[in-house]
TrEMBL record:
Entry similarity comment: In the N-terminal section; belongs to the MIP18 family.
Keywords linked to the UniProt accession: ATP-binding, Hydrolase, Iron, Iron-sulfur, Metal-binding, Nucleotide-binding
A GO biological process held by the record: iron-sulfur cluster assembly
Functional summary from the UniProt entry: Binds and transfers iron-sulfur (Fe-S) clusters to target apoproteins. Can hydrolyze ATP.
Subunit structure: Homodimer.
Pfam families: FeS_assembly_P, ParA
Species this protein is from: Lichenicoccus roseus
Binding site for ATP: G134, K135, G136, G137, V138, G139, K140, S141
Protein name: Iron-sulfur cluster carrier protein
Domain MIP18 family-like: 12-81
High-level lineage: Bacteria, Pseudomonadati, Pseudomonadota, Alphaproteobacteria, Acetobacterales
Keyword Isomerase set for record: no
Entry GO MF terms: 4 iron, 4 sulfur cluster binding; ATP binding; ATP hydrolysis activity; ATP-dependent FeS chaperone activity; metal ion binding
Keyword Chaperone: no
Length: 372
């Protein structure tokens, strides 16, 4: 099998773009100041071009030419080209440095290019569920990984998608250090612990900071869904980024989500954010499968004494208030943390442990809700 090809560097991409001419200034793209963002990571190229709304048609042709020029480079697996317009700023002519500095920083998307097909993605996946949280630090990714493995242990074909572009954690949690293969310009998910997994973290160095704007994040997420050979799956678990932003809206618009699992800790401040997460999915017509209370209690490994470090029962009470199911209480255990850091999730390495049984119960409830 062919290894993932080495991607060109940014200067090579800019050199390829120098053959594309801006119709307004007559200059090549790098010299025209049309490029609003360019990121090259592991065969994934994201390009943002500045455009005025009244010149959308001509710039769409330029975007197509730019995409073709980049795709012709050796080692390029996927390309996304986006057009954006500065709100309240005249961009019919390519702005100079002074105009760029004074332009408003916000952007309004006009067109999303790339290879992802229009409409709903992941057509071969029977059920797609989002594991989400209103804030970070509540153990959402750990829950998503162990839930996915729990579903796989029930005999289901399961995919796991890391949608947290800015902070991907699946490579570490799954113990994966390699890059995905590419077959016919499509990436192949990496298999681990009975799952087919994909993350932007497979394509970049672990310490790389993903300093991307919203349109580029949405483009990358589209490609992780549409340009990956997922195959037929019973269920896909999507580890969402924390909060209620671009990634959540992209998933709701591009995928037929069967439901969302909200992860929270018991304390009031976390539950406040979980409430916002529930409200967001309700507004996008995504069923909320229920709430998970993570770090629900701590049992001393020596004496067995139970301590409720963050309170207890808050998520159950919140679920009752919101009228959604309460799915599980996951204890705060050292083994959950150490197994995740070691790349051997507790649901795979110790399924008969207390934590393993808690995740298995969660998987059973989710499977029942999805009628799998």
């Amino acid at each position: 099998m062919a290894l993932f090809p080495k991607a060109p560097d940014q200067p090579a991409v800019l050199h390829a773009l120098s053959r594309v001419i801006d119709p307004v200034s007559g200059k090549d793209l790098p010299a025209s100041d049309r490029i609003d963002g360019l990121v090259v990571r592991g065969g994934l190229v994201q390009l943002v071009l500045r455009s005025g709304r009244q010149e959308q048609q001509s710039m769409e042709r330029v975007a197509a030419q730019a995409e073709a020029a980049i795709r012709a480079l050796p080692g390029v697996a996927n390309v996304t080209v986006m057009l954006t317009a500065h709100r309240g700023a005249a961009v019919d002519a390519a702005p100079g440095p002074a105009a760029t500095a004074s332009a408003a920083p916000s952007h309004a998307p006009i067109r999303l290019g790339g290879t992802a097909p229009p409409g709903k993605l992941l057509a071969d996946v029977k059920r797609v569920i989002a594991v989400a949280s209103g804030k970070g630090g509540v153990g959402k990714s750990t829950t998503a990984v162990n839930l996915a493995i729990g579903l796989a242990r029930r005999g289901l074909a399961v995919g796991l998608l890391d949608a947290d572009i800015h902070g991907p954690s699946l490579p570490r949690m799954l113990g994966i250090t390699g890059q995905p293969e590419v077959r016919d310009k499509r990436m192949v998910p990496i298999e681990a612990w009975g799952l087919r997994a994909m993350s932007i973290g497979f394509l970049v160095e672990e310490r790389t900071a993903m300093v991307w704007r919203g349109p580029m994040v949405m483009g990358a997420l589209n490609q992780l869904m549409g340009d990956v050979e997922w195959g037929a799956l019973d269920v896909m678990v999507v580890d969402m980024p924390p909060g209620t932003g671009d990634a959540q809206l992209t998933m709701a618009q591009k995928v037929s989500l069967a439901g969302a699992v909200i992860v929270s800790t018991p304390q009031d401040i976390a539950l406040l954010d979980a409430r916002r997460g529930v409200a967001m999915f309700e507004k996008t017509n995504v069923p909320v499968l229920g709430i998970v209370e993570n770090m629900s209690f701590f049992c001393c490994p020596r004496c067995g004494e139970r301590t409720e470090l963050f309170g207890h029962g808050g998520a159950r009470a919140e679920a009752a208030t919101l009228g959604v199911p309460f799915l599980a209480e996951i204890p705060l255990l050292l083994d959950i943390r150490t197994s995740s850091d070691a790349g051997t999730p507790i649901m795979a390495s110790a399924p008969e442990s207390d934590a393993g049984r808690a995740y298995a119960a969660l998987a059973a409830k989710v499977a029942e809700s999805l009628r799998l």
